[in-house]
């Protein structure tokens, strides 16, 4: 489990900025507009809602499930280990509210800075809104890692090998490319939920809700309409698709 401590105000938007372009020289920048690569439906808008009041600090079900499902290893090097999902603890500076635990992953933003700065089109938005990385186009420049204000991306520093425990539905990562949470795209395309959501339910927490916001009858669409929710740093205008309840 990876745990960090952040201030609630910093996370929710009181100040800060995000890079949305990579400047090479005065007046010159890298902005990519990758072509669509999939046949995913554009009528769908995947999103996640996390109720932090149901997420205890000692529960690591979502973290464990993510690593197992997506073949994400730990190498024992904190600065180079890959974390598709992590938990941070938020504290109120004024001590007026209790601390909360915040699972964080790629937010699959509607206006992703990572996609805008990618020079090769490796980072792209699928028709259903998923922000993905084409490892065959990724050159490991890490512009996307710099642009992402949520620290959701990691560079693969180590070669990995398939083992008997590896999930055969997920390719083994390549050294020198950037990767991140995909909302378990292989599961979505098979009619399943992300592994973290399923594990949260099995652990009896049900803090995570996943579904199609474009479906007015879906559980997540109804919850977002009826319950007060927020996103991390909405002031940046990136429009994250991971919403939080109870912050």
Describe what this molecule looks like in 3D:
The protein is globular. Residues 14-38 have low confidence and may be disordered. It has helices at 8-12, 61-69, 113-117, 143-147, 185-188, 195-202, 219-226; strands at 3-7, 22-25, 28-30, 46-51, 85-91, 100-105, 123-125, 131-133, 154-155, 178-179, 208-212, 229-230, 242-245. 18% of the residues lie in helices and 21% in strands. Helix 2 (61-69) crosses helix 6 (195-202). The protein has 7 helices and 13 strands. A 4-stranded mixed β-sheet has the order 11-4-13-12. It is of the alpha+beta class and 247 residues long. It has a single domain (3-245), classed as Alpha-Beta Plaits.
Q: What are the main properties of this structure?
A:
Alpha-Beta Plaits; 247 residues; 13 strands; alpha+beta; three-stranded mixed β-sheet
Kindly report the spatial arrangement of strands forming the biggest sheet.
Answer: 11-4-13-12
Shape: globular
Indicate the percent of residues in helices: 10-25%
What is the CATH topology classification name?
Alpha-Beta Plaits
CATH class designation: Alpha Beta
Q: Compute the separation of the termini in Å.
A: 22 Å
CATH architecture annotation: 2-Layer Sandwich
- Which percent band covers the strand fraction? 15-25%
**Spans where pLDDT lies below 50 across 5 or more residues:** 14-38
Mean of the pLDDT scores?
A: 86
Please tell me the total number of domains: 1
Order of helices and strands: EHEEEHEEHEEHEEHHEHEE
Number of strands: 13
Let me know the largest β-sheet. 4 strands, mixed
Structural class call reads alpha+beta
In DSSP terms, counting alpha (H) and pi (I) runs of 4 or more, how many helices?
7
Rg on CA atoms, Å: 18 Å
């Amino acid at each position: 489990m990876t745990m960090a401590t952040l201030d609630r105000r910093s996370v929710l938007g009181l100040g800060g900025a995000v890079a949305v372009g990579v400047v090479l020289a005065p007046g010159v920048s890298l902005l990519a507009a990758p072509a669509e690569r999939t046949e995913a439906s554009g009528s769908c808008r995947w999103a996640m809602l996390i109720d932090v009041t149901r997420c205890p600090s000692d529960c690591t079900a979502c973290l464990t499930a993510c690593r197992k499902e997506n073949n994400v290893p730990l190498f024992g090097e904190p600065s180079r280990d890959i974390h598709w999902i992590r938990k941070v603890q938020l504290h109120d500076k004024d001590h007026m509210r209790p601390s909360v635990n915040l699972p964080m992953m790629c937010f699959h933003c509607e206006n992703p800075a990572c996609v805008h700065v990618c020079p090769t089109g490796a980072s792209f938005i699928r028709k259903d809104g998923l922000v993905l990385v084409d490892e065959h186009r990724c050159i490991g420049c890490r512009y996307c890692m710099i642009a992402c204000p949520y620290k959701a991306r990691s560079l693969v520093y180590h070669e990995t090998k398939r083992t008997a425990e590896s999930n055969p539905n997920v390719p083994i990562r390549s050294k020198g490319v950037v990767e991140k949470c995909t909302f378990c795209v292989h599961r979505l395309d098979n009619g399943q939920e992300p592994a973290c959501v399923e594990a949260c339910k099995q652990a009896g927490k049900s803090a995570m809700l996943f579904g199609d916001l474009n479906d007015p009858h879906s559980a997540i669409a109804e919850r977002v309409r009826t319950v007060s929710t927020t996103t991390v740093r909405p002031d940046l205008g990136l429009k994250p698709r991971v919403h939080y309840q109870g912050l």
